[in-house]
Amino acid sequence: MVNECVVNAGHSTGDYVTINIGPSHPAMHGTLRVIAQTDGETVVKADPEIGYLHRGVEKLGEHLTYHQFIPITDRLNYCSAIANNVSYEMAVEKLMGLEVPEKAQLIRVIMTELARIADHQVLVGILGVDLGAFTPFFYLIIQREEIYEIFEWYNGARLTNTFGRIGGVEADLPDDFDARWRELRPNLFKAIDETDKLLTHNRIWMDRTIGVTAFSPEDALAWGFTGPCLRACGVKRDLRKDEPYGLYDRFTFDVPIGKNGDVFDRYMIRMKEMEESIKIIDQAYAMYQEMAPDAPLMAKVPKVIKPPVGEVYHATEAPNGELGFFIKSDGSDKPYRIKIRPPCYMVYQAFPELVKGEMIADLIACLSSLNVIAGELDR
Amino acid sequence: MEAYTGSGWLLTRLEQLVNWGRKRSPWPLPYGTACCGIEMMCALASGYDMARFGAERPSFSPRQADVLIEAGTITKKMTPILRRIYDQMAEPKWVIAMGACACSGGVFRTYSTLQGIDHVIPVDVYVPGCPPRPEGLLFALLKIMDKIDMEHPLRGEISSLVEGK
Amino acid sequence: MTMDLLKGVSNCLGPLVVASGEFRGDVTVEVPKARIAEVLARLRDDPNLAYDFLVDLFGVDNLDLYEKAAKPKKKTEGEGDAAEEPKPAGPPPPRFEVIYLLLSLSTNRRLHVKVRVPEDDLSVPSVTGLWKAATWPEREVYDMFGIRFPGHPDLRRLLMWDEFPAHPLRKDYPLEGRGEERILRYE
Ligand code: SF4
Whose CA is closest to atom 6 on ligand 1? Predict the structure, then answer.
C-alpha cells in the first residue's frame, strides 16, 4: 500500500506530507481509500480511490434473468437491501407497464421505511463510533436487531432480504406484525430520543460536527448530490414528494432540511427522517388494515419475464438519495444493459472538494456522514 | 473458585498453559469489506457480544491481531492488500472466511471477484451463508478455540532443545 | 405531456436532434456526438426546459444487438422482437452509445440524451465543464468501455486497477474475465 501511494501521489510539493488512508483502515469502512496531502494537520488535497469492491454487478446483470437479478440488488446498499429491491422491481415494472396491486404497494412502503430507519441507525451509530462516541451505537443497534427480526420473520433473511417480486410481493405481512410493530414503535422513539440526548447538545459533538465540511447548495447540485446530503445543504428535494412513485403521494410527512450542509446537518436530517419514516409506516399500516385480507398481492405477471424492446430509467428515494435503475431490454428474458445510479457515488466524488482545507480528523467525520456504502459505490 | 484462593500451585503442562492463554483471548482483526461486515458488526456489538469469548479487543492493526475475520467479498483489486495484511500479522494466526464470497466467490462469479480467499491465504474456518448469521461467526470463533486446543505450540522448540543436548 | 416535452426540446435544439423517441414516458433524443456539450448547455440554459441537473451518464455497447438483428435475416427465422429493430442499411451503425440522464429540478421532468460513438473514433467531448457531477461517470465510461473524453481534467481508470488490460463492460469481454491478476510489488 505504502509504495503504491507514493507512485500515485508523487513527492512533488515542498513540505506537504502524503498520507495514505485505507483501504484497510477502521474509519474507511472496509474498502475506501483516500490519499491525502497534508500541510501539518490540514488537508491540502485528497484523492479518493474506489473500486476495491467492484464486483461486476452490472456485467452480471446482463447474464441473469430479470428475477435472478433481485438478489444481486440486495448486495448494493447492504444497509437497506429492501430499498434496492423495491427500486429495481419498480424499474422492471415500468419497463413492462405493470400495475402493482395496492396492498402490495403498502407492504412495500412499510418495509422500505423500516429499511430506511435501519440504514439511518447504522449511519448515526457509525458516525458516533468514528468520532469516538461508542455508546449511541449500542443503543441504536438493539432497535435495529428488532427491525431485522421483523425482516427475518417476513422473508427469512436478516440483511439480504430479496424482498418482493416483479409485479408485487411474495407474501402478506405476518399475522403478528401488529404486535411486533406496537412493541417496536415506542422503542424506536426511545432509541432516537436517547441518541438525541447523548449527542445533539453534547459540547464535544457540536464542536466536532458543526461547520465541518459545509457545502453550498449550488455546489451540491453541480456535483449531483441527492438525498439527505443535498437536503442538509438546504435544498428541499425528496423524490417521494417531488416525483411521487408508488403510493407516496397519499401520505403526509415532512421533508426536513438543513442550513449549512455540514456534518451536523447531515446527522440531524437523518435523525428527523427516522421520525418521519415512523409516521409514514403508521399511515401505511392504517391503510393496510383497511384492505381486504384476500386482496391480491401480485399483478398478472408471466412466468418468464420478457419485456418489450426499450429503455427505461426509474428512480426512487433510497435512504442515501436517488437510486435509479436504467434498464435496456432487447426483448429477451435477460436485460441487455443494466446501469445502476448509486446515490453515494455522486456524493463521494465531491469528497476532495468537501475536505479541502479541513483537519485530517474532520476528513473521517465527513466520510462517515456521507454514508458511503462501498457495495453500491463500486457495484 | 473460592476453594482455590490463597497461595498454592497448579500442575499443568506448559503446552496446555500456552494454549489456554491463546485460546481465551483471540483478538480479532475485523476486516469487513462488504455486506458480511455489517453482520460482523452485529456480532461484535451488543446483543451477540463477541467479547464474551475473549475477543474483547477488535484490533484494527494486523500486528496485534490473532484471528483475521475476513467478512465480505475480496475483489482482485483488493487481493494483494489482503495478502499483505495476512503477512503483517504475527504468528500464531488464524483466519476465518466469513460468507459465501470469502469462501468461494459466492454469487459474484465475475471478472473482478476473487473466487475464494483461499487462493491467496490459508483459511482455518469457513462460515457459509450470505451473510452468515452472527451466531455463525460466534460458532466459527469457538471452532478456532477448539483448534487452538489441539495444537502443540512447543513441540518444535522442545525437540530442538532435546536435540541440542 | 411527453409530446409537449419533445416539441420543447426540438424547438430548443432545432436541427441538432437526429432522432427522438418515447417509451413508457421516458423521452430520448439523439444528438450528434461532436456537439454534445453545446446541446447540454442549451438544454440547461433554456428557461422553459431548464434541465439543470445531471443525474447520470453511462455507456452502452450495442454489439450483441446488431449481431442479433443481423442473424435472423440470414437464417430467415424468428421474427418477433428482433424484427422491430431498424434494419442496418449500408455501413454498420456506431457500436457504442453514451446516454446522459438529465433532470429539471423546477419541473421534475427527465430527459435522456443519447450520442452514438463509432468504434473507430472512441471519443466524446467532456461535459465536466457544465456539471462537475460528470467527473467520475466519465472516468467510469472510460474504464468500462474505453471511450475517451477529451477535455476531462483527470481521465484515469476508476474502478479497475490501472494496469487492467481490457474494458470489462464491452460485450465481447467474457463475464468471468480472461484471468487477469493484480500484482503489486512492494519495495
Ligand atoms: S457472502 Fe453475501 S452477504 Fe457476504 S459479502 Fe458476499 S454477497 Fe455480501
Answer: B101
Residue type, A7: V
| Rounded Cα distance, B132 and B39, in Å | 8
Give distance in angstroms: CA of B33 to centre of ligand 1: 9
Supply the DSSP string of C161-178, one letter for each residue: -TT--S-TTSTTS-TTTT
Residue A152: CB atoms within 10 A of its CB come to 15
Our CA angle for A35, A36, A37, nearest 5°, is: 130
Specify the 3-state DSSP secondary structure of C78: coil
Chain A CB contacts of C112 below 8 Å: 311, 313
Q: Is A53 near chain B, with CB under 8 Å?
A: yes
Question: Residues B46-71, buried b or exposed e (16+ Cβ, 10 A)?
Answer: eebebeebbbeebbeebeebbbbbbb
The 3 state secondary structure assigned to chain B is CHHHCCCCCCCCCHHHHHHHHHHCCCCEEEEECCHHHHHHHHHHCCCCCHHHHCCCCCCCCHHHCCEEEEECCCECCCHHHHHHHHHHCCCCCEEEEECHHHHHCCCCCCCCECCCHHHCCCCCEEECCCCCCHHHHHHHHHHHHHHHHCCCCCHHHHHHHHHHC
Helices of type H across chain C:
2-13, 36-45, 63-75, 135-145
Q: Nearest chain A Cα to B107, which residue?
A: A72
What string of H, E and C letters represents the secondary structure of C92-103? Answer: CCCCEEEEEEEE
> What does each of the 379 residues of chain A score in pLDDT, given as a tens digit?
444 444 444 444 567 888 888 787 777 776 888 888 888 788 888 888 888 888 888 888 888 888 888 888 888 888 888 888 888 988 888 888 888 888 888 888 888 888 888 888 888 888 888 888 888 888 888 888 888 888 888 888 888 888 888 888 888 888 888 888 888 888 888 888 888 888 888 888 888 888 888 888 888 888 888 888 888 888 888 888 888 888 888 888 888 888 888 888 888 888 888 888 888 888 888 888 888 777 788 888 888 888 888 888 888 888 888 888 999 888 888 888 888 988 888 888 888 888 888 888 888 888 888 888 888 888 8
**For ligand 1, what atom is nearest to the CA of residue A160?**
3
- Which long-range contacts does A199-207 make (Cβ < 8 Å, 24+ apart)? A199/A124, A199/A128, A199/A133, A199/A136, A199/A267, A200/A268, A200/A271, A202/A133, A205/A131, A205/A133, A206/A264
- Please name the member of C24, C64, C85 whose beta carbon is closest to the beta carbon of A312: C24
In what side-by-side order are the strands of the sheet with A321-329?
A310-318, A321-329, A335-341
Reading the block at residue C177, the C-alpha cell is 474475465
| Calpha distance A20→A36 (Å, rounded) | 6
In this structure, the residue with its CA closest to atom 8 of ligand 1 is: B35
Ligand 1, atom 3: nearest CA belongs to which residue?
B131
CA-based nearest residue in chain B for residue A49: B77
